[in-house]
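User: I'm curious whether this sequence folds into something compact or stays loose and floppy. Could you predict its structure so I can see for myself?
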Amino acid sequence: MHGSNSKSSIARKRLLFPKSRRLPSSSSFQSVFSNGVEIAGRAMVVWVSRKADCERRMGVIATKRTFKNAVDRNRAKRLIRESFRLLQDKFSKEPWDMVILARRRILSMKQQDVQREMRSICRRHGI
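Assistant: Here's the prediction. I'll summarize afterward.
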């Protein structure tokens, strides 16, 4: 019984989205905007900037202009973070920073659809 718990906790650990994987400040976001490549999808716009550090990090933006209600902003960010969390093992091991801007259309999508779009965008950029 104890062995099965440790296996599942190991699997869960791999799929965490710790603070070390998040972009910490607006200057980090600005760096990605100015140095990164932009890729537009139906539900999100992604900027990716390769870097020399050893960590891959991501930041999410859901603006008040696009999402009037906090509930909608939070849902959009939750969908993106969850997709990133589930896909992070499938990304390349190269270090990069990524900023994802949610579009209004994301609210009408299911988690699997958001995940599929994120995977498609990352493949187009070689991540």
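Summary: The CA atoms of residues 3 and 9 lie 10 Å apart. Helices lie at 2-14, 26-35, 70-87, 111-125.
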